[in-house]
Inverse folding.
């Protein structure tokens, strides 16, 4: 089979290898579309290696057709249209995937739409509900609201009637978030979200989803409500925060938690997939929540997708398609 490899100069090139062998608990999927994630860029740079024992091939989420089934798999059939998480191996013609990490693609969705579901919605679901225990009517601040995870978190939070504020970098992204249901939008290039909070949300935010890290952590604590929860998912603003205000954290009884998904156990991911399907799959089917796709590329254009993602220009997901 063909797959996209990273050469010694960090360039993307096509290579060939055997199809993956599946275990008794896995399915073999013929890949039709691939979700592009920032983790792919980091792995390409040598900064985010796959977990031990996982494929070295890029790619954390796919959609496609089931073409082989492990002997212990009972809830998946040959020919099923599915999407799901993989810990590696997604940038390939075929990929092995744990059967309990699979999400059926709704009948009216294309494979391209299917490839925009798993990573962002499961990350958002984990952050908002498994970690932050978001409740209806709570105040949520989502940094990078137009990103893949940000837009998914926005829709999940609105689905339970939380009040959602997002930060964005442009008016175009602001308008996109308003269309997705955001209650308030802050263009951080024009206004400090700390100053905005003082005027519009004096009690602060109950839950903050942060992809910035760095000194943004102190700013998040400034705008946090008493008993608020901050979930850190990435460090686009740097890995260190100077002069972290512990006293303010104590005063607010703040909870700050960092989280990743790729290196979680198979059991954890299976429980996460099950929880998401039980709570939100109907909303996915009826369109209350839906994947947001910025642009679709042929997988031969993966480098262009990576370059655009590195500029933070996307609204929603970039998708690669292996078909055509």
């Amino acid at each position: 089979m063909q797959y996209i490899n990273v050469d010694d100069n960090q360039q993307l090139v096509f290579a060939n290898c055997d199809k993956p062998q599946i275990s008794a608990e896995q399915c073999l999927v013929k890949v039709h579309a691939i979700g592009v994630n920032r983790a792919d860029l980091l792995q390409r740079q040598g900064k985010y290696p796959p977990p031990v024992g996982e494929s070295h091939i890029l790619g954390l989420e796919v959609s496609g057709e089931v073409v082989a089934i492990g002997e212990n798999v009972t809830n998946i059939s040959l020919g099923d249209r599915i999407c799901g998480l993989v810990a590696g191996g997604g940038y390939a013609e075929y990929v092995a995937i744990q059967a309990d990490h699979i999400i059926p693609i709704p009948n009216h969705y294309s494979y391209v739409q299917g490839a925009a579901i798993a990573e962002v919605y499961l990350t958002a679901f984990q952050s908002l509900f498994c970690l932050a225990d978001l409740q209806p009517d709570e105040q949520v601040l989502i940094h990078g609201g137009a990103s893949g995870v940000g837009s998914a978190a926005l829709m999940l939070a609105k689905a339970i009637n939380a009040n959602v504020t997002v930060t964005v970098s442009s008016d175009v992204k602001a308008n996109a978030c308003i269309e997705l249901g955001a209650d308030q939008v802050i263009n951080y290039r024009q206004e400090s979200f700390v100053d905005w909070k003082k005027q519009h949300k004096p009690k602060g935010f109950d839950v903050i989803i942060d992809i910035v890290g760095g000194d943004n952590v102190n700013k998040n604590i400034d705008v946090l409500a008493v008993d608020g929860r901050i979930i850190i998912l990435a460090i686009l603003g740097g890995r260190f925060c100077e002069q972290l205000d512990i006293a303010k954290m104590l005063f607010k009884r703040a909870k700050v938690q960092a989280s990743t998904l790729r290196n979680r156990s198979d059991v954890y991911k299976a429980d996460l997939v099950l929880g998401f399907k039980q709570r939100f799959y109907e909303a996915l089917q009826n369109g209350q929540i839906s994947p947001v796709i910025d642009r679709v590329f042929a997988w031969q254009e993966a480098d262009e997708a990576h370059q655009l993602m590195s500029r933070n220009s996307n609204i929603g997901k970039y998708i690669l398609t292996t078909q055509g």
Summary: The chain is about 30% helix and 25% strand. The chain has a mean pLDDT of 96. The CA atoms of residues 218 and 244 lie 6 Å apart. The longest helix spans residues 266-286.
